Amino acid sequence: MQVGIFHFGYLSFGSKLIIHKLVKNCIKSEMKVANVLFDQDSKQYGVTEFTKDALEDWEHIRIGVLPNSLNEDIHMTLQQFDSIIILGGSRQQVSYLEKYAKGRVLSVPISILNDFEGSQYTLGYDTALNVVVNNILKIIDTIDSLKYGKLRVFCAQIPGTTANVLLEDVATAIDGNSIYQPDEKFWDELANRLDEKYKAGTTYSILVINEAQDPEQVQEKLAQKLDIDFKWNHFDESQCLGPYPTAVDRVLAMKLAQCVVRWMDEVRQSAYLVVKEHQVEFENI
Protein backbone atom coordinates (compact mmCIF):
# COMPACT_ATOMS: atom_id res chain seq x y z
CA MET A 1 0.00 0.00 0.00
CA GLN A 2 1.17 3.54 -0.82
CA VAL A 3 0.34 6.27 1.72
CA GLY A 4 0.69 9.98 0.90
CA ILE A 5 0.95 12.86 3.37
CA PHE A 6 -0.30 16.26 2.16
CA HIS A 7 0.44 19.11 4.56
CA PHE A 8 -0.97 22.66 4.36
CA GLY A 9 0.28 25.56 6.47
CA TYR A 10 3.15 25.97 8.91
CA LEU A 11 4.75 22.75 10.16
CA SER A 12 4.11 22.62 13.91
CA PHE A 13 5.02 20.32 16.78
CA GLY A 14 1.59 18.68 16.48
CA SER A 15 1.98 18.04 12.76
CA LYS A 16 5.38 16.42 13.22
CA LEU A 17 4.04 14.26 16.05
CA ILE A 18 1.16 12.98 13.91
CA ILE A 19 3.44 12.33 10.93
CA HIS A 20 6.00 10.53 13.11
CA LYS A 21 3.41 8.16 14.58
CA LEU A 22 1.90 7.54 11.15
CA VAL A 23 5.26 6.85 9.50
CA LYS A 24 6.33 4.57 12.35
CA ASN A 25 3.08 2.56 12.06
CA CYS A 26 3.29 2.35 8.24
CA ILE A 27 6.89 1.16 8.21
CA LYS A 28 6.08 -1.41 10.91
CA SER A 29 3.22 -2.67 8.72
CA GLU A 30 5.52 -2.65 5.65
CA MET A 31 3.58 0.11 3.91
CA LYS A 32 5.30 2.76 1.85
CA VAL A 33 4.66 6.30 3.06
CA ALA A 34 5.69 9.54 1.37
CA ASN A 35 5.47 13.29 1.81
CA VAL A 36 4.10 15.35 -1.09
CA LEU A 37 5.83 18.71 -1.52
CA PHE A 38 5.76 21.66 -3.91
CA ASP A 39 8.76 23.36 -5.48
CA GLN A 40 8.16 27.11 -5.65
CA ASP A 41 10.71 27.64 -8.42
CA SER A 42 9.64 24.92 -10.86
CA LYS A 43 5.96 24.99 -9.72
CA GLN A 44 6.06 21.19 -9.71
CA TYR A 45 4.89 18.67 -7.12
CA GLY A 46 7.33 16.12 -5.80
CA VAL A 47 7.25 13.03 -3.59
CA THR A 48 9.78 12.08 -0.90
CA GLU A 49 9.50 8.63 0.65
CA PHE A 50 10.06 8.20 4.38
CA THR A 51 12.49 5.45 5.32
CA LYS A 52 13.28 3.63 8.54
CA ASP A 53 16.41 5.75 8.89
CA ALA A 54 14.25 8.88 9.02
CA LEU A 55 12.69 7.69 12.27
CA GLU A 56 16.10 7.51 13.93
CA ASP A 57 16.87 11.17 13.12
CA TRP A 58 13.36 12.60 13.31
CA GLU A 59 14.38 15.89 14.93
CA HIS A 60 16.17 16.89 11.72
CA ILE A 61 13.62 15.54 9.24
CA ARG A 62 12.51 17.91 6.48
CA ILE A 63 8.82 17.84 5.68
CA GLY A 64 7.39 19.73 2.71
CA VAL A 65 4.22 21.80 2.84
CA LEU A 66 1.77 22.70 0.08
CA PRO A 67 0.57 26.16 -0.99
CA ASN A 68 -3.08 27.08 -0.47
CA SER A 69 -3.66 27.19 -4.23
CA LEU A 70 -3.37 23.84 -6.00
CA ASN A 71 -2.91 23.37 -9.74
CA GLU A 72 -3.98 20.49 -11.99
CA ASP A 73 -0.55 18.86 -11.83
CA ILE A 74 -1.57 17.54 -8.42
CA HIS A 75 -3.96 15.10 -10.13
CA MET A 76 -1.17 12.79 -11.33
CA THR A 77 0.50 12.90 -7.91
CA LEU A 78 -2.74 11.85 -6.24
CA GLN A 79 -2.93 8.73 -8.41
CA GLN A 80 0.19 7.31 -6.75
CA PHE A 81 -1.50 6.70 -3.39
CA ASP A 82 -4.01 4.22 -2.02
CA SER A 83 -4.49 6.28 1.15
CA ILE A 84 -4.01 10.02 1.64
CA ILE A 85 -3.62 11.92 4.92
CA ILE A 86 -4.36 15.66 4.63
CA LEU A 87 -2.98 17.75 7.49
CA GLY A 88 -4.59 21.19 7.64
CA GLY A 89 -6.30 22.86 4.71
CA SER A 90 -9.95 23.82 4.35
CA ARG A 91 -12.98 21.66 3.59
CA GLN A 92 -12.83 23.00 0.02
CA GLN A 93 -9.20 21.89 -0.39
CA VAL A 94 -9.97 18.48 1.12
CA SER A 95 -12.96 18.05 -1.23
CA TYR A 96 -10.79 18.96 -4.22
CA LEU A 97 -8.12 16.38 -3.32
CA GLU A 98 -10.72 13.74 -2.50
CA LYS A 99 -12.38 14.28 -5.88
CA TYR A 100 -9.22 13.41 -7.83
CA ALA A 101 -7.73 10.85 -5.42
CA LYS A 102 -7.45 7.20 -6.45
CA GLY A 103 -7.91 5.94 -2.89
CA ARG A 104 -9.42 6.99 0.42
CA VAL A 105 -8.71 10.30 2.15
CA LEU A 106 -8.47 11.36 5.81
CA SER A 107 -8.58 15.06 6.78
CA VAL A 108 -6.95 16.21 10.04
CA PRO A 109 -8.08 19.63 11.43
CA ILE A 110 -4.92 21.70 11.87
CA SER A 111 -5.18 25.51 11.87
CA ILE A 112 -4.17 28.31 14.22
CA LEU A 113 -7.37 30.13 13.21
CA ASN A 114 -9.75 27.45 14.54
CA ASP A 115 -11.68 27.76 11.30
CA PHE A 116 -12.23 24.19 10.09
CA GLU A 117 -15.94 23.79 9.40
CA GLY A 118 -17.59 21.19 11.65
CA SER A 119 -14.79 20.98 14.22
CA GLN A 120 -15.01 22.87 17.52
CA TYR A 121 -11.23 23.03 17.82
CA THR A 122 -8.26 22.75 15.50
CA LEU A 123 -4.74 21.73 16.39
CA GLY A 124 -2.53 24.82 16.85
CA TYR A 125 -5.28 27.24 17.85
CA ASP A 126 -4.73 27.10 21.62
CA THR A 127 -0.98 27.60 21.25
CA ALA A 128 -1.46 30.54 18.87
CA LEU A 129 -4.00 32.18 21.17
CA ASN A 130 -1.70 31.86 24.18
CA VAL A 131 1.42 33.05 22.36
CA VAL A 132 -0.23 36.12 20.81
CA VAL A 133 -2.07 37.14 24.00
CA ASN A 134 1.02 36.74 26.19
CA ASN A 135 3.13 38.81 23.80
CA ILE A 136 0.53 41.58 23.68
CA LEU A 137 0.27 41.59 27.48
CA LYS A 138 4.04 42.16 27.66
CA ILE A 139 3.65 45.10 25.29
CA ILE A 140 0.80 46.47 27.43
CA ASP A 141 3.07 46.36 30.52
CA THR A 142 5.63 48.47 28.66
CA ILE A 143 3.03 50.91 27.30
CA ASP A 144 1.40 51.36 30.69
CA SER A 145 4.72 52.21 32.34
CA LEU A 146 5.45 55.04 29.89
CA LYS A 147 3.08 57.99 30.09
CA TYR A 148 2.58 60.19 27.01
CA GLY A 149 0.68 63.41 26.55
CA LYS A 150 -1.65 61.73 24.09
CA LEU A 151 -3.40 58.42 23.49
CA ARG A 152 -1.09 55.53 22.62
CA VAL A 153 -2.53 52.96 20.22
CA PHE A 154 -0.90 49.60 19.61
CA CYS A 155 -2.12 47.48 16.69
CA ALA A 156 -1.37 43.74 16.54
CA GLN A 157 -1.66 42.13 13.11
CA ILE A 158 -2.15 38.35 13.20
CA PRO A 159 -2.37 35.74 10.40
CA GLY A 160 -5.53 35.16 8.37
CA THR A 161 -7.66 37.09 5.91
CA THR A 162 -11.15 36.15 7.08
CA ALA A 163 -13.23 36.79 10.19
CA ASN A 164 -12.33 33.95 12.56
CA VAL A 165 -12.25 32.84 16.17
CA LEU A 166 -8.59 33.74 16.75
CA LEU A 167 -9.18 37.37 15.74
CA GLU A 168 -12.11 37.74 18.13
CA ASP A 169 -10.62 35.77 21.02
CA VAL A 170 -7.31 37.67 21.02
CA ALA A 171 -9.17 40.99 21.15
CA THR A 172 -11.44 39.74 23.93
CA ALA A 173 -8.56 38.34 26.01
CA ILE A 174 -6.62 41.63 26.05
CA ASP A 175 -9.74 43.84 26.34
CA GLY A 176 -9.05 45.34 22.93
CA ASN A 177 -10.92 45.97 19.70
CA SER A 178 -10.87 43.76 16.61
CA ILE A 179 -11.14 45.30 13.15
CA TYR A 180 -12.44 43.45 10.10
CA GLN A 181 -13.96 45.00 6.97
CA PRO A 182 -14.71 48.34 8.65
CA ASP A 183 -16.94 51.01 7.12
CA GLU A 184 -16.97 54.74 7.94
CA LYS A 185 -19.53 54.28 10.71
CA PHE A 186 -17.22 51.73 12.36
CA TRP A 187 -14.29 54.18 12.33
CA ASP A 188 -16.42 56.89 13.95
CA GLU A 189 -17.62 54.51 16.66
CA LEU A 190 -14.11 53.15 17.28
CA ALA A 191 -12.65 56.65 17.57
CA ASN A 192 -15.35 57.58 20.10
CA ARG A 193 -14.66 54.46 22.19
CA LEU A 194 -10.91 55.09 22.21
CA ASP A 195 -11.41 58.75 23.12
CA GLU A 196 -13.81 57.95 25.97
CA LYS A 197 -11.41 55.34 27.32
CA TYR A 198 -8.53 57.84 27.23
CA LYS A 199 -10.55 60.54 29.01
CA ALA A 200 -11.50 57.98 31.67
CA GLY A 201 -7.80 57.55 32.50
CA THR A 202 -6.57 54.68 30.34
CA THR A 203 -3.66 56.04 28.33
CA TYR A 204 -3.50 53.27 25.75
CA SER A 205 -5.74 51.13 23.53
CA ILE A 206 -5.06 47.83 21.75
CA LEU A 207 -6.35 46.97 18.28
CA VAL A 208 -6.26 43.52 16.67
CA ILE A 209 -6.39 43.06 12.91
CA ASN A 210 -5.45 40.31 10.46
CA GLU A 211 -3.77 40.40 7.04
CA ALA A 212 -6.95 41.60 5.33
CA GLN A 213 -6.36 45.00 6.95
CA ASP A 214 -3.38 47.29 6.32
CA PRO A 215 -2.09 48.71 9.65
CA GLU A 216 -0.97 51.90 7.92
CA GLN A 217 -4.55 52.48 6.78
CA VAL A 218 -5.72 51.93 10.35
CA GLN A 219 -3.27 54.59 11.51
CA GLU A 220 -4.39 56.96 8.75
CA LYS A 221 -8.09 56.56 9.59
CA LEU A 222 -7.64 57.09 13.33
CA ALA A 223 -5.19 59.99 12.90
CA GLN A 224 -7.92 61.85 11.02
CA LYS A 225 -10.13 61.66 14.11
CA LEU A 226 -7.75 61.54 17.11
CA ASP A 227 -4.35 62.81 18.24
CA ILE A 228 -2.55 59.50 18.74
CA ASP A 229 0.84 57.83 19.01
CA PHE A 230 0.48 54.71 16.82
CA LYS A 231 2.66 51.59 16.78
CA TRP A 232 2.01 48.19 15.23
CA ASN A 233 3.55 44.73 15.07
CA HIS A 234 2.96 41.72 12.81
CA PHE A 235 2.83 38.17 14.22
CA ASP A 236 3.42 35.55 11.51
CA GLU A 237 2.31 31.93 11.71
CA SER A 238 5.67 30.64 12.96
CA GLN A 239 5.66 33.19 15.80
CA CYS A 240 2.09 32.26 16.72
CA LEU A 241 2.97 28.60 17.12
CA GLY A 242 6.30 29.10 18.82
CA PRO A 243 8.60 26.26 19.96
CA TYR A 244 6.45 25.15 22.91
CA PRO A 245 2.86 23.99 22.31
CA THR A 246 0.35 24.30 25.12
CA ALA A 247 -0.78 21.26 27.08
CA VAL A 248 -4.16 21.47 25.33
CA ASP A 249 -2.51 21.20 21.91
CA ARG A 250 -0.23 18.39 23.08
CA VAL A 251 -3.25 16.36 24.22
CA LEU A 252 -5.14 17.09 21.00
CA ALA A 253 -2.11 16.15 18.86
CA MET A 254 -1.89 12.77 20.62
CA LYS A 255 -5.62 12.11 20.17
CA LEU A 256 -5.48 13.01 16.48
CA ALA A 257 -2.39 10.87 15.94
CA GLN A 258 -4.10 7.88 17.56
CA CYS A 259 -7.13 8.32 15.30
CA VAL A 260 -4.97 8.60 12.17
CA VAL A 261 -3.24 5.32 13.01
CA ARG A 262 -6.60 3.69 13.81
CA TRP A 263 -8.01 4.84 10.47
CA MET A 264 -5.08 3.23 8.68
CA ASP A 265 -5.29 -0.03 10.62
CA GLU A 266 -9.06 -0.41 10.33
CA VAL A 267 -9.15 0.47 6.61
CA ARG A 268 -11.98 2.95 7.10
CA GLN A 269 -13.58 4.95 4.27
CA SER A 270 -12.74 8.59 3.48
CA ALA A 271 -13.42 10.83 6.48
CA TYR A 272 -12.85 14.09 8.29
CA LEU A 273 -11.50 14.04 11.83
CA VAL A 274 -13.47 16.60 13.86
CA VAL A 275 -13.24 17.67 17.50
CA LYS A 276 -16.48 17.79 19.47
CA GLU A 277 -16.72 18.16 23.25
CA HIS A 278 -12.94 17.59 23.50
CA GLN A 279 -13.22 14.22 21.74
CA VAL A 280 -12.01 13.34 18.23
CA GLU A 281 -14.64 11.78 15.98
CA PHE A 282 -14.77 10.42 12.43
CA GLU A 283 -17.17 12.13 10.03
CA ASN A 284 -17.56 10.41 6.68
CA ILE A 285 -16.87 12.48 3.58
TrEMBL record:
Location in the cell: Cytoplasm
Entry keyword ATP-binding: yes
Ranges where the Phosphofructokinase domain occurs: 77-263
InterPro entries in alphabetical order: ATP_PFK, Phosphofructokinase_dom, PKF_sf
EC number(s) from the headed UniProt entry: 2.7.1.11
Cofactor: Mg(2+)
Protein name, entry field: 6-phosphofructokinase
A single GO molecular function term of this UniProt record: identical protein binding
Family recorded in the similarity comment: Belongs to the phosphofructokinase type A (PFKA) family.
Keyword Secreted tagged: no
Reaction catalysed by this enzyme: beta-D-fructose 6-phosphate + ATP = beta-D-fructose 1,6-bisphosphate + ADP + H(+)
Predominant location category: cytoplasm
Domain of life: Bacteria
Keyword annotations from UniProtKB, A to Z: ATP-binding, Cytoplasm, Glycolysis, Kinase, Magnesium, Metal-binding, Nucleotide-binding, Transferase
UniProt GO BP: canonical glycolysis; fructose 1,6-bisphosphate metabolic process; fructose 6-phosphate metabolic process
Top-level enzyme category: transferase
One cellular component term from this protein's GO annotations in UniProt: 6-phosphofructokinase complex
Source organism per UniProt: Robertmurraya kyonggiensis
Described function: Catalyzes the phosphorylation of D-fructose 6-phosphate to fructose 1,6-bisphosphate by ATP, the first committing step of glycolysis.
Pathway connected to this protein: Carbohydrate degradation; glycolysis; D-glyceraldehyde 3-phosphate and glycerone phosphate from D-glucose: step 3/4
